[in-house]
């Protein structure tokens, strides 16, 4: 790695030491300060390849992703509880400090989605790992997919209870948003009901866990259904797990977006193959064409800062 990359990794490791020394990751002045510092450090536009990190830095990255996940869960629970104390929670949703980021990310995902929904908007969508503050579902349902039904899955019953409370007083969303307390690895038949499945960034905290979830979705989603995933690129991979396109077996990768603004997550969209691609030698089983991992590059936002250029990855099946 170059000097600039080394300096960023060193800074991230220092912040990790500070975060690790905190008594609690619940929202507080110190917690907010350290995580803000971490995010600002990680979103710097440097060509950092986390696969080339030292073993020590890789260990820190793994631990840091889990600390970020814990802090994010506590932050969302705090604000979901606060919002739930209002008579009409959604009227006050902009008090969440990262609401504007969700507006940008959801707009990006919607734009990406409609590029590949060629005939109609989806009628049934699943969001896996929706959490106590399901902002993506709320924003998409409120502003973009206004007739779509959203089924939100989370393994935590208390998270679903907080989330349900946010939309229960809304006459529209309360009829179109549903919450299921389930480990998605135990959900099979129901997955065939959805035209689009969103997979939250923190479902599957490492490469192996993420690959198992994706494999489960490949087995049980409806043929031709779309899978929307969140990943991370460059130093942002210290905040969220990275999805290796070669792990998307069973799917045709359609597009990949890497933001370079304050939106942290990369966005991938893939389509489940309508039918398995079989080899000539049937004893070898199905051959699934992976995405062209070597062709993914960093993208720059357009002049207004909200949209991101697209790389379309097209696989021609013979």
From TrEMBL:
GO terms for molecular function: nicotianamine synthase activity. GO terms for biological process: nicotianamine biosynthetic process. The keyword Membrane does not apply. Its EC number is 2.5.1.43. It comes from the Eukaryota. The keyword Glycoprotein does not apply. It catalyses: 3 S-adenosyl-L-methionine = nicotianamine + 3 S-methyl-5'-thioadenosine + 3 H(+). Keywords: S-adenosyl-L-methionine, Transferase. Pfam families: NAS (PF03059). Synthesizes nicotianamine, a polyamine which serves as a sensor for the physiological iron status within the plant, and/or might be involved in the transport of iron. Belongs to the nicotianamine synthase (NAS)-like family. This is Nicotianamine synthase. It comes from Protea cynaroides.
